[in-house]
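Entry type: protein chain
Record version: 2
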Amino acid sequence: MRALLLVLFCTVALQWDRVSCQKTVYQSNTHLVPHRNVWRSDRPAEGTPNRNGDECDVVMNLSASQRCEFVKNTPDCASDEGFIKYPVVTFCLFPPNLLPLAITLYVLWLFVLFLVLGLIASDFFCPNLSAISSTLRLTHNVAGVTFLALGNGAPDVFSAMAAFSHPQTAGLAIGALFGAGIFVTTVVAGSIALVKPFTVASRPFLRDVIFYMAAVFWTFIILYKGHISMGEAVGYLGLYIAYVLTVIVSAYIYNRQKHQLNGSAQTSGREQGEILPSDSYREIQSASIQAHDDGEYEPLLPYTQSTAQIFLNAINPVDSRTWRRQHWSAKVLKVIKVPVEVLLLLTVPVVDADKEDHNWKRPLNCLHIITGPVVCVLSFQSGKYGLLLIEGEVPVWVLILCIGVFLSGIVFFTTTNERPPRYHFLYSLLGFVVSMLWISTVASEIVSVLHLLGVVLSLSNTVLGLTLLAWGNSIGDCFADITIARQGYPRMAISACFGGIIFNMLFGVGLGCLLQIFQTNNVVMLEPEGMLCWVLSGALGLSLVLSFILVPLQCFHLSRVYGIFLLIFYIVFLLVALLTEFRVIQF
């Protein structure tokens, strides 16, 4: 983390000097001309290309007195779908001499947004997906490559969808998806091999690498063409369906063969055709012991809480039992997340199939019927439809609020605190939709902040995507997979690596472009931002080809030497990418 921050601030310093020099040169020979209420420069800055036709890039070449008016009248500066108009805040509210302070605040704000994104996905989105999977009685293999993949990849997919919503930020999506792919296949996989050298399951590994290479090659062709049609976007989703069917069929064949060889008593197989380690039973035992330990905090005598106590306990995100044992850094992060957690607890219902009462909290769940739909209409398209007036008088969100109050009253007076109603599973669907829109909202803010940083620092969207956005979305998975490997499950960790990035690539590009095609009724233009995009795609393709060749040559054993090789490969790639961005290396 320290190294990441060091690279970030060095990049900011270098780019700040470069932007200052460019601005000085530009102002000496440039003037502005108004054109259709949009300020345009009649001469582009030397060495500052217009990225994907993004007119907002020109703002740093203007004098400080002209920037505010420019961002207010330039559509590209006001086209972000986030709630906060960052260009206006930056150039109209902050004095020019405090611009470095604004950049620092935006970096800290990005950190908070990534924390919130991970919180929503882990504590609200994934549990509801698990409840839906249990309700539908899906097998572990089907649930793993559908709902579980969606839960794990939600930040990446929604960030890509938000980036694809505008042509000037499409480079963020490409950079993030390719950057996350090479980060996971090198840094995460290499770290797992360093922590716990192991022999990977051959067939699942080859299957995942082949499908991912197909997805990367397809994206490479799309970038070469410069556009993607509806049929090609649907093809991405079709390729993932083929991947899911392959996983299901291979798991079925594997389990059938294992059943024939070992008998029905030994048919327990690992998800995606892998055998669980022999100490998996110990993990289940330890989980049972942990649950038993938690039971000692339960009251010895029956105790009935009042409705008010149930509500207050349900919206309290701090567990006093674990707070005392936490490290000070964890406590600081918890304090940062508490306001957001309270807001999410008030708006997103969570159904937990593992609990006896399925997490039924009558007063809070009745409130969710009111707050959940209101959040949906106010967060969808940045409140565009929620603020519409019915007959020119009543906003849509007020109508939704009234309907929610009526339904909430019915549920409150027809249920009890002790037992959940039969239709309680419907709350998981509501929680799924509300948390999905919360994730989409936060992802839009992240994309808007990164777009602003790219404009201010004259960085391309691709380099921002492959660094900040890819790191922010992948760092949590990195630590989670390393922890799983340390616990003795490296095969599970490596499967999660490749399974997740396949879903992110196919759904991120396919669904993101498909939604954009539906909105514009036209093909989506995907113009590469210079040579950096080709460096990125070439590096990802090379890493996959090397894994496809070298891992079988090692009899599918991932050693520490191979882990070091993968880490060095990523460092070299990142160095080449940054030198290409700064035009030290030119092809």
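Comment: The CA atoms of residues 132 and 428 lie 6 Å apart.
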